[in-house]
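Bug #77: duplicate submission created two jobs. Keeping one. Sequence:
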Amino acid sequence: MVDAAPGLAAAGGVAPRRHLGIHHTERWSRHREQGSYGVGREGEGRREDETSRCGIVRWTVLVVVGRAEALTSTGQPIAFSIFPAEPPGVSHFCVHCRGLEDAGYSTEPSVVHSTDNLAILTICLKHGRDLHREYFLYRASRPSQPPSLEPLPGLHDQLLKLRPLASIAVVSCGGGAGEHFILAALGPIWKGQYDFHVFRSNLGTWTEKVVALGENAAMDPKKVIVLGGGEVGWVDLLRGILVCNLLDDDPVFRVIPLPTLLPVNRVYSEHRRSAEQFRDVVCVDGVVKLVEIEYCRRRIVHDVSKLEVLYDDDLTLGANVYTEPKETYEYTGWRLLTWNRAVSSNCWRRGSLVHADDLIVDDMRHSALLPGLVEKNARKNIRPTCPTLSMDGTDVVYLKCKVEPKDKKSWVVAVDMRKETIEDVASFPDKRSRNRNYITCAAVPCSNVLMQSNL
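Kept job's structure:
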């Protein structure tokens, strides 16, 4: 896992296998010299003139898979490195700029999208009082070819035309080597109308058009998934998926509606709770999968027949005697539900439904790592967020957990929905909110990676 993007895999010399990446196998030190953040094992520093900005975490295991270099628009050397880890660990990436101090970055770099052997990286650098954002395309290693990093000079200008900020997708084309690619940005305008910008690397040109799908297709996509065969889906986790085939000369959109929210989440969504806290959608081998987590509650019915004593202060007079008491609820734990469908299907089929109380913990070491996993009464108080579906075809869901909301450490818990077991647990430093700060990445030779992306 890499904080920010599950599934971004590093390239080079390892059999492809999707996973999450994290750093937890050895002793690490955080080393700083003259504005540089060292990344490595204890005793291993980086050159003083090289500064790194890492996704969320500035230190990790020094097993670099897939380092690539390029130049920014001002001629600044930049290198992008991936540090893969086994799931439920969180992989990390680092951006290195020789001679640039940490203050030269306006924000932390981030991976905004990843698919196949491609990933889109963005950095924002300071030039005097000005801020300059740049985008790069990372290609994982291919047969007889090392990883590469390629500037995308026109992308930022295109995104400036789209308000609000568009969701970006990229697919390979022109053969298995993936020499050419198609990049697309989709931004909502108003009530089912979208700005749609497409770049084809073999032509070196952008095309722009407005797509009108009607008010029923009004969505606010926050995620992009690749469906296969050139098809891409822009996902609104509350409503549906906008699908088109980028390999077509003139892509036509269609809509895949998402299942209705679970009862408690319908209430949460009305209060503007971010959908990524309780939903995720992926596509694996032509099957679209959805997972949803719900904090269950039971309504407490006020029935005086169950009381032995009624105090005057608890009773009402006048017209209020016909009024229902204020609704109160009891929290009963959390549950996970999965749905799946073929891309071409017209229906969703329910997968697994698991309640926290029914999960089995086979390895007691997991309880030592994350207190409260074994005891059912304590487990319900660990309120996981940001469910993330595995990309390797299994029924594993990864959950982000904190013992206390203000903890500086988060845990990734791997739940096998079919077996109803907690498979593994791993921790990673996390000073951010309960929102998702990792993405699934496929550009590393691990087939199911969670990578910190700083989104």
